[in-house]
Design brief:
About 25% of the residues lie in helices and about 20% in strands. It is an alpha+beta fold. The chain folds into 2 domains: about 1-45 and about 85-130, no CATH class; about 50-75 and about 140-315, no CATH class. Strands 3, 4, 5, 6, 7, 8, 9, 10, 11 and 12 form a 10-stranded antiparallel sheet that branches. Strand 8 (about 240-245) and strand 9 (about 245-255) form a beta hairpin. Helix 1 (about 5-20) runs antiparallel to helix 2. The longest helix is centred in the last third of the chain and has 25 residues, at about 320-345. It is globular and about 80 Å long. Mean pLDDT is about 80; it is low at about 1-45.
């Protein structure tokens, strides 16, 4: 079927979904329309007791999604902590319109596959009900704290170094890590544009979290061992977990020099907290502490809901012609510009 017919249809389905949701919902608190779904908390929560694994730990296992409309930072000019339900659905409607617009022929958006066609974007996939104006809850303004002088200097030095490397499409090394299928950003677990799904597996002494985007697996020891030596560093950092009541607490350090989450230094510490809140709900919190970058630690939280599995391999590089095509296209554009300049010079 022609993609240009499917794209507007995706937006129509999203509008129908919003209208259906605003009507009284079933006891389960979930409305589904075909492969599209919008999940919300039940109007009246049923009594629920946390289930345990065979070794007696709170059971977080299964497939989860944190797909959300909430932004990491509160938009400038917004002063309240939560949107009303009406404001939330107005934003959802506007996003559905953007997702459903036909791309202009010949543009980058036109040649990229359509997320709404496959139920991958925020308005077509399973959506966690988050009415917060930002994921960040501390500081109270919902914004990342100011950078220290050290953090500002490091950011300026990095920008200068990148400028020396040339334009983005001058060489493959100048493209973002995610475009090169190297690293999406796994700690903390912020939802990317799509593939916002995670699988948690627990066993005695370990917790494994498989991240759908780029198919990264975090294996987290729970036996109290110390962190690896400071000279042992990696993309995912070095994680250690423990239980505080029914909450899984994960502390991650030892990142490499390339991760730089929101401009952090290699010495950043990320503390995550995962708490099961219901049969199909979980709260995810994380705190970022890096005195080499920010004037104070900052904290964010978001909900997650259970979804269906399994997670299939995200083979980003297999059959991926985009890298070569982007670089070739840049060379073609440069050739055209040079020919146009030469022609103008002879006139």
């Amino acid at each position: 079927m022609n993609q240009r017919l499917i794209t507007p249809l995706g937006a129509i389905l999203a509008f129908i979904l919003i209208a259906v949701f605003l009507m009284p919902s079933p006891a389960a608190g979930q409305v589904k329309l075909g492969t599209n779904a919008l999940s919300v908390a039940p109007a009246a929560a049923k009594p629920w007791t946390v289930t345990k694994t065979p070794d007696g730990q709170p059971d977080l296992q299964g497939y989860w999604t944190n797909n959300t409309m909430a932004l990491l930072q509160r938009p400038k000019g917004v002063t309240k902590e939560f949107y009303t339900k009406e404001e939330f659905f107005e934003a959802l409607k506007k996003q559905a319109e953007l997702d459903g617009e036909e791309a202009t022929p010949g543009t980058v958006e036109d040649v990229h596959y359509d997320h709404s066609q496959f139920g991958l974007d925020r308005t077509q996939g399973l959506l966690t009900p988050n009415f917060r104006t930002s994921m960040i809850i501390e500081p109270p303004d919902g914004r990342i704290p100011p950078m220290t002088a050290e953090g500002q200097k490091r950011a300026a030095d990095l920008a200068a170094e990148r400028k020396k490397q040339g334009a983005q499409y001058d060489q493959a090394q100048n493209l973002p890590f995610v475009t090169r299928c190297i690293y999406m950003g796994a700690v903390p677990m912020l939802p990317p544009a799509y593939n916002n799904t995670y699988q948690i597996v627990q066993s005695p002494g370990y917790v494994m979290i498989l991240i759908e985007e780029l198919h990264e697996a975090r294996v987290i020891p729970m036996d109290g061992r110390p962190h690896a030596p400071q000279n042992v560093r990696s993309w995912l950092g070095d994680s250690r977990g423990h239980w505080e009541g029914n909450t899984l607490v994960i502390e991650t350090t030892n990142f490499n020099d390339k991760v730089a989450f929101q401009g952090s230094s290699r010495d950043v510490k990320v503390t995550e907290r995962l708490t099961r809140t219901g049969e199909a709900t979980m709260k995810y919190e994380f705190t970022v502490d890096d005195p080499h970058t920010w004037t104070q630690p900052w904290k964010a939280e978001m909900p997650a809901i259970k979804t269906d599995g399994p997670i299939f391999e995200h083979a980003c590089n297999e059959g991926n012609y985009s890298m070569g095509n982007m670089l070739r296209a840049a060379r073609v554009e440069e050739k055209r510009a040079a020919e146009a300049a030469a022609k103008k010079g002879t006139e």
